[in-house]
Write a structure and sequence with these properties.
Elements (H helix, E strand, L loop, with lengths): L1 H18 L2 E8 L5 E12 L4 E4 L8 E10 L3 E7 L4 E3 L6 E5 L2 E6 L8 E9 L2 E12 L7 E8 L2 E11 L4 E4 L5 E7 L5 E9 L10 E4 L7 E3 L13 H36 L12 H12 L1
Length: 299
């Protein structure tokens, strides 16, 4: 039975290398009938990619059923399918069991941090079954404008700061000059990591030669930034929310003023339509009073 173990291990490792970062081990129980295979492995997928998880090396035509038990951070669900065409899905988030060249796999579209977790699969076929425990992770590079660099003063010293936010794993930061520097990492609640490096530099340093080099494993090439002074040493990334708030306030007051002008004009038009035009009418003295006054003159 040793040749069965070697063949299954070779096929599993070959498939893992084709998919990306994979660590796995295989245990074959040859003392029982039917044959049982247990596989523990780790796989990592890029953020936004379409992921495939394979549960068995057997062709789909030989499978009796496939059951995926999925444990995520925010929920636990199950997806299954059998050779009679019956299916079950309690995940309802786009995951599905699909077939490719007669091989079954779990398809995860647009992989996100919400898809990170433990995926346990059981695949039964005539003569045995295979059980896969797959620990699935995600990789994501920092994106602009979350990569920034700036200069600030700390007492009587000048400090260069370089920051790469929301990467999985954290980005690597280095400087074009040597000096006293520190690197810190901050883990966000959703699993992303922010890396920051601070370097003390002399006052008379040539700033054109001071650069920050940021690298991530998903980038084709590193990014080079030249730090410059900003008010209070804040990176330009922090000004984006301020600009957004200012824009919203300006838009709000513009709309409010426009509505006020429209309502004022409507009120003026309404008042003009309600009040009829008035004419100046000369008051006429009654005829009896006029005759009486004339007679008194002649008398």
């Amino acid at each position: 039975m040793m040749w069965i173990y070697i063949l299954i291990f070779f096929l599993t490792e070959s498939r893992g290398m084709a998919q990306g970062t994979t660590n796995s081990n295989v245990i074959v129980n040859t003392t029982t009938s039917p044959l049982k295979v247990y596989v523990n492995k780790k796989e990592v997928f890029n953020l936004g990619s379409d992921a495939r998880l394979i549960c068995s090396n057997r062709t789909w035509t030989k499978a009796v059923f496939v059951i995926w038990n999925i444990e995520l951070t925010h929920k636990t669900c199950k997806i299954s399918f059998n050779h009679e065409g019956q299916s079950f899905d309690s995940c309802n988030d786009g995951k599905s069991i699909q077939n490719s060249t007669d091989q079954s796999f779990l398809h995860i579209p647009n992989f996100s941090v919400n898809d990170v977790g433990a995926y346990k699969c059981e695949s039964a076929y005539t003569g045995g079954n295979e059980n896969y425990n797959i620990e699935v992770g995600v990789t994501a590079p920092p994106t602009a404008p979350t990569v920034s660099a700036w200069l600030k003063r700390r007492g009587n010293k000048m400090v260069a700061v370089c920051r790469a936010e929301r990467g999985i794993p954290a980005a690597n930061i280095s400087w074009s000059v040597t000096g006293n520097h520190s690197v810190t990492q901050q883990n966000d609640r959703d699993g992303f990591v922010t890396a920051e490096s601070q370097l003390e530099v002399p006052e008379d340093i040539d700033r054109e030669n001071l650069t920050c080099i940021v690298w991530h494993q998903l980038w084709e090439r590193e990014k080079t930034l030249v730090p410059d002074f900003l008010p209070e040493g804040l990176s330009i990334f922090y000004f984006i929310p301020v600009f957004g708030i200012i824009f919203i306030l300006v838009a709000f007051f513009s709309i409010y003023s426009l509505k006020k002008v429209i309502l004022l004009r409507q009120c003026q038009q309404t008042d003009a339509s309600k009040s009829p035009p008035t004419e100046d009418v000369e008051e006429v003295e009654p005829y009896a009073s006029y005759v009486q006054r004339v007679n008194s003159i002649y008398n």
